[in-house]
């Protein structure tokens, strides 16, 4: 593969190979001397049209640990503000001969479009409600390290599934590796055609969590709802917020995940987010390892200029 645009299109073998490569990068990242030379002399541009804490910083750290020169494009102060289109911007950056462009964009499909317009490798860092492939890979790595496998586990993905690229990429990946995926949400936050995809769905949180090995919470994406979220955030927490009482319905020792950023007291209680069953900090560490693995896997396909 020349690009990583989504989990869709990757085989289970591709996914396992990336996870194995990432496993090795965890060790690299835990050493005092972290620098490798796989991407020495290469140029990586991070192009984020939406805010990010975890994804952008970990792609920057990953690129630098592999020896690349990494440039973070400041979209907010770029000529996008003067009306330049995504395609013209892509052509402009392409003329500077980067080897890799990492893109986050608010429109589903924008990253695929950009990939057709440039000569280098493109990595999707989240496009609208479509895909966030490196998030699903880091979640899978975190699960595999804690449970030893993914096959046969029951994973409950809970909350704002309708607007979530994280949910979509995880659903595809976890199903490909043989997990039983459940979707738990109010019916208004489930995609209308979800039944067609064959996932078990629940509108009752306690039933959806019953016997789950992994509880994966999602952020309520109020910014994608045009101010039309009903009921109130307080009521949402009462029915769908993960607290210790609801978590007690999952398997004893079930593990809790959240991609971040968290809204404490909206989809997750602090007692759970900071509790012994939480993997949230480990997910962040795995994010760097997975992004190093993805960049390294693409290295053999980078342009020979
Ligand atoms: N999980 C995730 O994508 O976080 P950021 O939006 O902070 O990058």
Question: Please, could you describe this protein's structure?
Answer:
- With 305 residues, the chain is α/β, with parallel strands linked by helices.
- Helix content is 38%, strand content 14%.
- It is built from eleven helices and nine strands.
- The chain has helices at residues 12-29, 54-65, 86-94, 110-117, 133-147, 165-176, 205-209, 233-240, 244-247, 270-273, 280-299, and strands at 43-48, 69-73, 100-105, 121-127, 154-158, 180-184, 200-202, 214-217, 255-257.
- Helix 3 runs parallel beside helix 4.
- It is globular.
- The mean pLDDT is 95.
- The protein binds phosphoric acid mono(formamide)ester.
- Phosphoric acid mono(formamide)ester (CP) is lined by residues 52-55, 126, 135, 259-261.
* Distinct ligands, ions and cofactors found in the model: phosphoric acid mono(formamide)ester
Kindly report the spatial arrangement of strands forming the biggest sheet: 7-6-5-8-9
Percent helix, as a range, is 25-40%
Structural class, by secondary structure, is: alpha/beta
Number of strands: 9
Question: Secondary-structure element order, as H and E?
Answer: HEHEHEHEHEHEEHEHHEHH
- Uncertain ranges: none
* Largest beta-sheet details: 5 strands, parallel
The value of Rg in angstroms is: 19 Å
What is the CA-CA span between the terminal residues?
A: 19 Å
Give the overall shape, derived from the CA principal axes: globular
Count of DSSP H/I helices? 11
Beta-strand residue percentage? 5-15%
InterPro entries: Asp/Orn_carbamoyltranf_P-bd, Asp/Orn_carbamoylTrfase, Asp/Orn_carbamoylTrfase_sf, Asp_carbamoyltransf, Asp_carbamoyltransf_Asp/Orn-bd
GO molecular function: amino acid binding; aspartate carbamoyltransferase activity
Catalytic activity: carbamoyl phosphate + L-aspartate = N-carbamoyl-L-aspartate + phosphate + H(+)
Binding site for carbamoyl phosphate: 54-55, 104, 132, 135, 260-261
């Amino acid at each position: 593969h020349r690009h990583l645009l989504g989990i869709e299109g990757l085989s289970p073998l591709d996914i396992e190979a990336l996870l194995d490569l990432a496993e090795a990068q965890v060790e690299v990242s835990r050493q005092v001397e972290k620098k490798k030379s796989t991407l020495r002399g290469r140029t990586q541009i991070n192009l984020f049209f939406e805010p990010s804490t975890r994804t952008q910083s970990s792609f920057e750290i990953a690129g630098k640990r592999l020896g690349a020169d990494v440039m973070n494009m400041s979209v907010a102060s770029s000529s996008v503000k003067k009306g330049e289109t995504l395609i013209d911007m892509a052509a402009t950056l392409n003329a500077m001969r980067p080897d890799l462009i990492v893109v986050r964009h608010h429109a589903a499909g924008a990253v695929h479009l950009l990939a057709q317009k440039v000569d280098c490798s493109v990595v999707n860092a989240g496009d609208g409600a479509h895909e966030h492939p490196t998030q699903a890979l880091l979640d899978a790595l975190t699960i595999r390290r804690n449970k030893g496998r993914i096959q046969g586990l029951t994973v409950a993905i809970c909350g704002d599934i309708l607007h979530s690229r994280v949910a979509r990429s995880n659903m595809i990946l976890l199903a490909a590796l043989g997990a039983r995926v459940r979707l738990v949400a109010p019916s208004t936050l489930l995609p209308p055609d979800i039944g067609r995809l064959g996932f078990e769905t629940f509108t009752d949180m306690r039933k959806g969590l019953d016997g789950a090995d992994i509880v994966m919470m999602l952020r309520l994406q109020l910014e994608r709802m045009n101010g039309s979220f009903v009921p109130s955030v307080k009521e949402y927490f009462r029915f769908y917020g993960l607290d210790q009482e609801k978590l007690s319905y999952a398997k004893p020792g079930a593990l809790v995940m959240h991609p971040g950023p968290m809204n404490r007291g909206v989809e997750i209680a602090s007692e759970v987010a900071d509790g012994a069953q939480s993997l949230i900090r480990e997910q962040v560490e795995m994010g760097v390892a997975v992004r190093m693995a993805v960049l390294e896997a693409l290295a053999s396909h980078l342009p020979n200029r």
